[in-house]
Amino acid sequence: MAQITLIEAVTQALAHEMRVDPSVVVLGEDVGVNGGVFRATQGLQEKFGAARVIDTPLDEATIAGLTVGLAAQGMKPIAEAQFEGFIYPMMEHIACHAARMRTRTRGRLTCPAVFRAPWGGGIRAPEHHSEANEALFTNIPGLRVVLPSSPGRAYGLLLAAIRDPDPVMFFEPKRIYRQYKEEVPDDGEALPLDVCFVLRDGSDVTLVTWGAQVKEALEAADALAEQGISAEVIDVATLTPLDFDTIHESVKKTGRCVIVHEAPRTAGFGAEIAARLADEAMYDLLAPVERVTGYDTHIPLYRLEMKYLPSVERIVAAATRTLAAS
């Protein structure tokens, strides 16, 4: 079995669902002839035709409006925003229509749409091409927010997102689009949504993260292991609805938690997890919850970009502080 990258896993999942389900369509800027700005849809128009892989005008609001309309009429549209920083014109349709469709119609209509966007920093792009704005969408009832961290999880979670009867915001961490490969069988097997993945068992501290930062968290766990510290690593994967039970069970075991994300610190989704731990796991904690995050600035260009993103060293330092606090 050939090994593939995360971006190739996205393409593989899109192609699989388009083969088996004629109601699946893809639309966005340059998704057809050019295969998308990162080539996630490369070759799909040749396979499935311009009526199912649709090049749209450079107008994100129109893309989102078309997506909602198609979904309400029985199609399964997958809309691409070229970058997460271009998604703001789509938010009116996502928040006011897609996410409310089931409630507004008392279940008569649903909105089985997926809104895809390359997400996060680390590729030396301007700041509006490098945002981690997932927390904005986690505050919208009726909308799932999904962030895969590996080729296998990108394939399985995207299949699940396409098959979901309600709208899904699917952020793809572009820093690791082509960073590494793994075997991903094209078997059509979806992974469960609304579930955290425990990637590494540990007993001393829980590292909670998602997206591209999973790589740094795993590397931090390796570095901590060299110091005799056992770190459990949790990939949240689906931010909303949050599988808090998995996080809570881990914290019951370790007594300590470090939350890692590259979005700005203030009102980042890590704050919600920390609040839930304070509400529901206070007496299981042996030390204050630590957050290792981006800073409350726009991501700086080029030379300071990697200083902005959480590093292995910052994660190790936070874990060490939690152990010293008890």
UniProtKB/TrEMBL annotation:
This is Alpha-ketoacid dehydrogenase subunit beta. It is an enzyme of class 1 (oxidoreductase). Its EC number is 1.2.4.-. Its cofactor is thiamine diphosphate. Keywords: Oxidoreductase, Thiamine pyrophosphate. Residues 4-179 form the Transketolase-like pyrimidine-binding domain. CDD domains: TPP_PYR_E1-PDHc-beta_like (cd07036). GO terms for molecular function: oxidoreductase activity. InterPro entries: THDP-binding (IPR029061), Transketo_C/PFOR_II (IPR009014), Transketolase-like_Pyr-bd (IPR005475), Transketolase_C (IPR033248). The keyword Repressor does not apply. Pfam families: Transket_pyr, Transketolase_C. SMART domains: Transket_pyr.
